[in-house]
Design brief:
The complex is a heterodimer of chains A (about 450) and B (about 350). Chain A is mainly alpha-helical. Helices cover about 45% and strands about 5% of the residues of chain A. The longest helix of chain A has 26 residues. Chain A is elongated. Chain B is mainly α and about 350 residues long. In chain B, about 55% of the residues lie in helices and about 5% in strands. Chain B contains 17 helices and 4 strands. Chain B has a two-stranded antiparallel sheet. Chain B has a two-stranded antiparallel sheet with strand order 2-3. In chain B, a hairpin with a 2-residue loop joins strand 2 and strand 3. About 5% of the residues of chain B have low confidence. Classes of the chains: A mainly alpha (about 450), B mainly alpha (about 350). Chains A and B meet through helix 15, helix 19, helix 20 and helix 23 of A and helix 4, helix 8, helix 10, helix 11 and helix 14 of B.
Chain lengths: ~450, ~350
């Protein structure tokens, strides 16, 4: 019993401890610089010219660093090779795969980015300057390197989104956007800060921002055109095609992208398909479509589309057709060569064969619809060429008489009428014959007459 | 002058209707397209799409359905509004506003009648709902995207192509675009009255027609209704109807509410004021009195309503083929959903 009370009391104490001490914990000095690196590196204008003759700035913005994800970590925890001042530039490189400063509470082991780095090294981007967090010479990386380093994507982006920056400035009457300049030592700043080395997850991280990271490189068509791809099986290098070069543009044409641009998060970002959330993976495993490990490989595509929150029905074999939609459709892109429009390879499909039939009919009708302008034919009733009788027969229910044989033509063929005056009485005959029929109709029932009259569009009794 | 006279001869309501179609075409399509651009889409694709969200994929859950709604929520709202107005006022969207069907209709009405195809005699209800089930159920399964045969994108793309925008040109010269273009011409411009696509293939029209028929069963809703006591069975309205929705049954015009678009073509034509867009059929003074003709009191040519004698129909025991086909379509649709959902679950 006492034990129970004790444990209960302990529990309450624990809760109280957490309630009252959290603020104190955060208020602890987070800005640790035990090695005094910032005594030099915080100076503005700390620059040097490297071997290649490039001016390089090694100033570290104090406030940026402190409010970053790693703001509480001493410099030497990552820059391990630097033991004393002055140090070589190369020694400053960081290996993200090494174990580091934090002990993970669940296992008690030192935390490390190793699994992420391993995953990344295997991926399509992984042959670059991976081990160097900063990618060595950044300018060199920017211009020459094909594959990105960690730093390239986990870049130093502003915490407040760019489109919200103006709103923020007016709402808070701020001219300065660096929080640290004024709010030095404020507790909340440590919680909300996070500049260098962003994690690309979290509620404020939108998919569009995620795409920006990819577009940063892949939208550069000139650079993408220089890339040579290696076949995963034969290891032959080949030049890239238009589908690869303009992948960003063709993505922009899809609904996935268009929906994201209207600020609806239901669309799919680049990473959502190319590196979807998987158990035991860290979303760095981007491969090329031809690679069997790729999430966008035809075999895996159904599973990728069926991720939670997306097209979950895609994974059933009944929907095998669903994944055939081309999401990087070159046909949606700007035309480079106008002759390619009528390229037989591009048009080859059953749809085209259908058009051969449909198109001929269309052309005949276009020609026919305007020919009356030139011929000057004036018919009293212009009946549709196809199916006019069927409407009268089926919908109206009228019995259509066969056309009378053209007797007047025969008459015209016999021009020499010798004695017209004599042959007058036979010409009246048909009129006489016709009139009793009409009379009998009227006598029998008036309804039929009303109908036959109204058929002409002039109802009268 | 002949053209001017022709325009003058158009009844007032039809003039109004054509102008509304023109305005809506200008505001939805082409270089102006300010309504889609307000939303952020320059065509009728994307959040504005009204047609894709109700497709059925085997193994689909309600969650997926709501995702689809979320993706195109503006289109869903527009679709719901269309159905709501249809319930109360008939298919006014289809006949007065729809820029896609309307443009085809205007084009068709400007062409010579001689070179047109008469589609109205085909069994349109069966074709429409047969295709509708295929559209909802079979096409997603076969991997033919519903967007492939979407006329809501064909016409914006066509106008884009006329502007010289590359996206439209490429679409029209693509194989799918070619077929869509052919359909637009055959079922649009060269169809008699220009509404064949609406009659046979348009899925929004199909859904709208169901609601229209439901709405027509109530007394307080506005729909095209026939006053049986006035109708002479003269077939003038049937000939004028652009949807082929009117047929004479025992010399009384009967409106097929599944196909009727409330375009008022029949109302303008009827001399006896027998067909009207009204809440419920009511007695009125005749619209015009003919020479030497008095309509009230009851004329002796008044048609007899045979609908009150159902016994003879039962006694004949004829198999009604139309009803049989309708039943087949509905049962195919339902059984397909049942079977595939069970297969997807397993």
């Amino acid at each position: 019993m006492r034990l129970f009370l004790f444990t209960q009391g302990f529990f309450f104490q624990l809760i109280l401890f957490f309630l009252f001490t959290t603020s104190i914990v955060y208020a602890n000095e987070r800005h640790s610089d035990p090695d005094g690196c910032l005594s030099c590196h915080a100076l503005t204008g700390l620059q040097f010219i490297d071997k290649e003759g490039l001016l390089r700035v090694s100033t570290i913005d104090e406030s940026h660093y402190y409010s970053s994800l790693h703001g509480s970590v001493p410099c030497k925890d990552c820059h391990r090779k630097i033991s004393h001042y002055p140090h070589k530039v190369e020694n400053g490189y960081v290996d993200c795969a090494e174990s580091c400063h934090v002990n993970e509470p669940s296992k008690g082991e030192a935390y490390t980015h190793k699994p992420i780095v391993e995953e990344f090294e295997k991926s399509a981007h992984g042959q670059g300057l991976v081990k160097d967090f900063a990618g060595g010479n950044r300018l060199k990386e920017e211009l020459e390197e094909v594959n990105p380093s960690c730093r390239r994507c986990h870049a130093n982006t502003a915490y407040i989104a760019e489109d919200q920056m103006e709103q923020f400035k007016t709402a808070f009457m701020h001219t300065e956007t660096e929080c640290g300049t004024c709010h030095q030592g404020d507790v909340w700043r440590d919680q909300f800060g996070g500049h260098i080395l962003r994690r690309l997850v979290g509620s404020r991280w939108k998919k569009e921002g995620n795409n920006k990271m990819c577009i940063d490189c892949h939208a550069n068509q000139e650079r993408m055109a220089k890339v040579e791809l290696e076949d995963p099986e034969t290891h032959e290098k080949h030049k890239v095609d238009r589908r690869w070069i303009d992948a960003t543009e063709s993505y922009d044409r899809t609904l996935h992208s268009r929906i994201l641009k209207t600020k609806i998060e239901a669309g799919a970002s680049c990473l959502d398909c190319h590196a979807p959330t998987e158990k035991g993976k860290f979303r760095h495993n981007i491969y090329r479509d031809e690679d069997k490990l790729s999430a966008t490989h035809p075999e895996k595509l159904a599973k990728t589309c069926a991720q939670s929150g997306c097209h979950e029905f895609a994974n059933t074999p009944l929907n095998a057709g669903f994944v055939e939609t081309d999401l990087h459709d070159v046909d949606q892109l700007q035309i480079l060569n106008w002759l390619s429009l009528i390229d037989s390879e591009r048009l080859e499909s059953n749809w085209q064969r259908a058009f051969y039939i449909v198109g001929i009919v269309v052309i005949v009708f276009i020609f026919g619809a305007f020919i009356w302008l030139f011929t000057g034919i004036k018919a009293k009733k212009q009946a549709p060429i196809l199916g006019n009788d069927s409407f009268e027969k089926i919908m109206i229910g009228r019995k259509i008489r066969k056309k009378p044989k053209k007797k007047p033509v025969v008459k015209k063929k016999s021009p020499p009428v010798v004695k017209p005056e004599v042959k007058v009485p036979p010409a009246i005959k048909p009129e006489v014959e016709a009139s009793p029929i009409v009379k009998s109709e009227v006598n029998d029932n008036s309804i039929e007459k009303a109908e036959s009259n109204s058929d002409k569009g002039k109802p009268s009794v | 002058m002949r053209i001017l006279n022709n325009i003058k001869a158009i009844p007032f309501v039809q003039k109004y209707r054509y102008s509304v179609i023109l305005i809506s075409s200008l505001s939805f399509l082409g270089p102006l397209a300010f309504l889609p651009q307000l939303v952020g889409n320059d065509d009728l694709c994307g959040v504005l799409c009204m047609r894709r969200f109700y497709l059925y994929f085997p193994g689909m859950t309600f969650e997926d359905f709501f995702t689809h709604i979320n993706v195109a929520f503006i289109g869903v709202i527009a679709f719901a509004l269309i159905l709501l107005t249809t319930f109360f006022y008939g298919r006014l969207w289809c006949s007065f506003l729809c820029p896609v069907g309307g443009l085809a209709e205007l084009g068709s009405r400007m062409l010579n009648d001689r070179w047109k195809i008469e589609f109205r005699a085909l069994p349109q209800v069966q074709i429409r709902y047969g295709y509708f089930t295929v559209y909802l159920v079979l096409m997603p399964l076969l991997g033919i995207s519903a967007c492939t045969l979407c006329n809501f994108i064909t016409i914006p793309r066509l106008i884009e192509a006329l502007q010289g925008e590359y996206r439209g040109i490429v679409y029209i010269v693509s194989s799918v675009g070619l077929v869509n273009l052919g359909l637009l011409f055959i079922l649009g411009f060269f169809a008699s009255k220009g509404r064949a696509y609406c009659q046979f293939l348009c899925p929004i029209g199909a859904a709208d027609g169901l609601v229209n028929r439901l709405g027509a069963k109530f007394n307080f809703t506005h729909h095209i209704r026939v006053e049986k006591e006035r109708c002479t069975g003269c077939n003038v309205c049937a000939r004028a109807c652009m949807c082929g929705a009117i047929q004479m049954v025992d010399r009384v015009a009967v409106v097929d509410q599944l196909s009727c678009m409330s375009c008022h073509d029949c109302v303008d034509v009827c001399d006896w004021n027998a067909i009207e867009w009204t809440p419920a059929s009511r007695h009125k003074e005749p619209k015009r009195i003919k020479k030497h003709v008095q309509i009230f009191p009851d004329p002796n040519w008044q048609s007899i309503n045979v609908h009150d004698q159902p016994k003879t129909h039962i006694a004949s025991k004829k198999v009604n083929r139309v009803r049989l086909i309708n039943g087949l379509i509905v049962s195919f649709f339902l059984s397909f959903i049942a079977v595939t959902s069970v297969m997807a679950m397993a």
